[in-house]
Amino acid sequence: KEWFDEFLRWNPSEYGGIDELIVFQREVWLPDLFVENTAQDYKELGNDAMLIAVSHKGRIFWEPGIVTETSCAVNIGRYPFDSQSCDIRYLTWMHTNRTLTVDPEFDSIDLAATLPNGEWDIARTEALPYSYPSTYKQGTSHTGVKFFVHLRRKRTFYILNTIIPVVMLSLLNVLVFILPADCGERMALAVTVLLSFTVYLGIISDVMPKTSESLSLLGKYLLYIPL
């Protein structure tokens, strides 16, 4: 984040050629930004121990850090071949667009500092302007940035540990009708396959996100196959 502060300008020739200062962020004015859709307590970005760069032209360069959790609606209808889209919304707390406007510098998120994840891949990202109507100044709005992160689930683990065993159990279920009616093992095979489907249904229910808004096709299949 960067902006210009006309009160923090100076002539380097009058101060020994110093053209830039590194100071604590608490010593300069900062925009009152916070994560709107946080799942934790509301708090401003950064802390008093973080530093900020000030150039002699009044240019402020600020790279705040924050660790936060946000809420995200998920659709598990195609689990485990699903993709999810989550957003992180940064918004001004009290300043409205009459005094402060916040816009994204780029149209995507820089992922250079991200670490690989064993469950998800980041397919793409977006950074869009965001605003919310002010509740105390009619006709104005609080401005900010909405970051979208589009995630795609890695499928190898689920194919090896869920899909392939379910397919094999489905084939075994068909063998029940191939065995002779007077065969004593027919009932034992049918009960074994039914119990196996029940076990896998429990395993999948444990690893899937807990939501009633959507139901996985795989979960439906395991639920109806015994019928």
UniProtKB/TrEMBL annotation:
Keywords: Ion channel, Ion transport, Membrane, Transmembrane, Transmembrane helix, Transport
Membrane-crossing residue ranges in chain numbering: 157-181, 187-208
GO MF annotation: an example: extracellular ligand-gated monoatomic ion channel activity
Residues in Neurotransmitter-gated ion-channel ligand-binding domain copies: 2-154
Top-rank taxon: Eukaryota
Domain Neurotransmitter-gated ion-channel transmembrane per the UniProt entry, residue ranges: 162-224
Subcellular location: Membrane
Membrane topology: Multi-pass membrane protein
GO cellular component: membrane
Matching SUPFAM superfamilies: Neurotransmitter-gated ion-channel transmembrane pore (SSF90112), Nicotinic receptor ligand binding domain-like (SSF63712)
Coarse class of the protein's main subcellular location: membrane
CDD domains xref list: LGIC_ECD_cation (cd18989), LGIC_TM_cation (cd19051)
Family in the record: Belongs to the ligand-gated ion channel (TC 1.A.9) family.
Protein name per UniProt: Neurotransmitter-gated ion-channel ligand-binding domain-containing protein
Species this chain originates from: Lottia gigantea (Giant owl limpet)
Lineage: Eukaryota, Metazoa, Spiralia, Lophotrochozoa, Mollusca
